[in-house]
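Hi everyone,

Forwarding the result from last night's run.
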Amino acid sequence: MSFTAARKNLRVTTYSKVVFVLLIVSIGFLLLFASLFYYNQKQEKEFYTTSSSGLEREINGLIDLNSDSYISLINEITYWDDLVDFVQTKDIEWFDNSVVYLIDSYKVDYIDVYTMEEEFVSKASTTKINSKNFIPKEVFPKLKNEKLIKFYTKIPEGIVAVYGATIHSSIDPFKNKTAPQGYFFIAKLLDEKYFLNIHNVSSASVVFYDPEKKISKKSIYYIKDLKNIKGEKIASLFFEREAKVDFTNTRNILYIMLVAFCISILIFLYYAKKWAQKPIRLIKEVLEKGNMSAIDSLKSIRGEFRHIGKLFEQNYNQKIQLEKTKKKAEESDKLKSAFLMNLSHEIRTPMNAIMGFSDLLLKKNLNDTEKDEYLKIIQISGRNLIDIIDDLVEMSKIDSDLIEPKYSSIDLNNMIHATFESIKVTVPSYKNIDFKLIGPKRISKRNVITDVVKLSQVITNLLTNAIKFTDEGFIVLDYHLDLKNSIIHFSVKDSGKGIPDDLQEKIFSRFNKVDFISDRDNKGLGLGLAISKAYIEMLGGTISLKSELGVGSTFTFSIPFQFDNEANEVAKEIFNETELGEEEIILVAEDDNINFLLIEKLLNLLNFKVIRAKNGQEAVAICKNNKEIDLILMDIKMPSVDGHEAFAKIREFNKNIPIIAQTSYSFPEEIDKINNTGFNDFISKPIDKEKLYFIIKKYIKK
């Protein structure tokens, strides 16, 4: 494997970089710790070595000083004429009176005298030493030559330091003029008292050295070998002094530093993993797998990673929204194709009927029954065409967010009953259906605030669909108020054919129609339920479906409401269609001849007189010259001067005449413009006879 390939295979992460830097720092610290520890050990070793050397010099100096005193004593005594005579006479009495006192005076433990023939003469000792004549034979020849000697020997009582000198007359203090006359020895027992004296002077403890005893490396000690006359070691003294300097604390501090550093490394690794590796791993999971739980985990971490988590969440939501938008666009393309096919079919069907039966009406040999039948077909086809166009316009307005709820105070029970009755009369006579309305047990007398138009439209759509799917059986509209939660619950239940399971999920989508019902019932574009669902959600509610094939369907929806506590009971005026006009004069400003002809016929049937203006300019002139006009129907879109401009000019000289706008547009912005202009009211095309009559009577009566 090449270096480049190996480098690619090596996973270098941010966490590994942090760990690598930490490793370098750790190595540096460990090197520093090792250096300090080595220096401490070296200093300690040098301290004990130097201290031991100092103790050695000090002990040797003390022993030499002690030896010097004994050497001075023995030198002084051994050039004494009386002592020379004693060796010859062996006068024990003289020895006891003149020599024995040295034991107490000079604190020696043993004194003895030998002749030149190595014959023991006499001795004196303390109670510590009971042995006598323990001087080795090898001492005498050497002493004879050297005149003064020191050695150690072992006796039953212990180890003694022996000092020996040859005896000379007083005329030879340097012992180099006369021959020696005998041998004089003094000895000092190395006992506890001897050791205590050394300890008091040197502060070092003294014991005989035991080779099997382990010596601590941290001891300040010195081993003094004791040799006999032959130069052989017969014992050793072990001197030990307490160290005043303790390096343990220094080492403990170093150990504490090491432990603290190791703990710091572990803590650093833990938090590096928690604050760096884990968030980076979560980010990797988000980027590679789109893991939402990883985003939630990122958001739970404090600091910048929480912000990154929120950014990921926003990005994810945007991605979901884009996918939804893409899906919606794809569905829109499919719906567009379905729309064009449905539109072509649904519009051509009523148009074909209108055109065909209109041609038939032009024939002169038709009887009245045939004419009435053809006219009825044309009327039904025209209404179907208007319903199709209304659904398309309404769906377009919903898609463009041009529709907003328009809340008003209504008598809910009266509205539902009126809607129910208006649908009930449309049930075809060939269908055997029991049409029922079930309301709450207790009817509230208070008005509720909701959008009456949208609510009425939803109920109408659901009841109309139920009629389409039901040939016989029942259709029930049920509603009740949940006062605790301020919700109105509605249900429309039928015993019709039911809806297959595979269609139930799509039933609220646009242009979806069930194909197994009869052609005469399957009219429209399949937008009714889609519009109803949009209206219900617009009002803050929900809708659901339960259906079983061959049993029936139940549509349930709920919307929130609130009571209108400030509403007054206002008596509503109900106009009877038989209450005709009294030949009031109405000015109709309409540029389209067919539309004017329809309006003129309707107004004549209602016993009103009609004056026509073909444009806005003509309407202003007629109104200015004719003071008997009672009401104006003003088309908005006209040549020369449109309806808005004509309204403004008429109001300059007539502030009170009612002016009703008539428009082919029903978009909110157009309605708002009409209201802002100041029109008294408006009516949408195609014009409904009842609504036209109601509006005219409303303002003429005033």
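Residues 14-77 form the longest helix (64 residues).

Cheers,
N.
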